[in-house]
Amino acid sequence: MVAYLKKAYPMPKSELVYRTPFQFVVAVILSAQCTDKAVNKLTAILFKKYKTARDFAKADEAMFTKEISSIPFFRNKANAIIGAAREIQARYARGIPRTEKELVALPGVGYKTAHVILGELYDVWEGIATDTHVKRFAKRFDLTNNTDLTKISKDLEALIPKGDWKYVNNGLVLYGRYVCPARPHDCAAHPLTKLWPPAALRWPKAK
């Protein structure tokens, strides 16, 4: 599986659009249970007004909440984004933290988000971020028996050499987005299913 991902997606990058490091943090927080397409549509406008952690830290919370109201769980995300911005302004003069421990201490940042940020901004791959795409394929290809996202990450990290961790999240996200989507379909002919044919039996087929 990893060999295919390395060949198909040799330069793993997020499809979230951003210009500054904190804008990427914001985009990742917004993307929880939301498509990158919807996030990019929102941030195309939002990021013209808010560029740095300082800008977000100074945001009026009621106004900001309204500005991101097209996104699921926008109230919680508004609190998290403004809280994270203020925390970074108060504690991290050097900018976005560079360790998992520091990142997960920020509002709205868990294991998955922390490792997406570390990989994208710093090319640091100290963990495998598990989102809905990674979870779906990990279960279908018998790579985990867990349902908790962090536990799935730990299972994958135990199976996959650390040097290849960088290819897993973005690779499976792109594969799930453009090759083997979540909607019911026959995936028997897809590249990864050919490597593990039993996966096709677990995929809901279109009626």
From TrEMBL:
Pfam families: HHH, HhH-GPD. Residues 30-178 form the HhH-GPD domain. The keyword Ion transport does not apply. GO terms for biological process: base-excision repair, AP site formation. One of its GO terms (molecular function) is DNA N-glycosylase activity. SMART domains: ENDO3c. Keywords: 4Fe-4S, DNA damage, DNA repair, Glycosidase, Hydrolase, Iron, Iron-sulfur, Metal-binding. Belongs to the Nth/MutY family. This is HhH-GPD domain-containing protein. It comes from Candidatus Kaiserbacteria bacterium RIFCSPHIGHO2_02_FULL_54_22. The lineage of its organism: Bacteria, Candidatus Kaiseribacteriota.
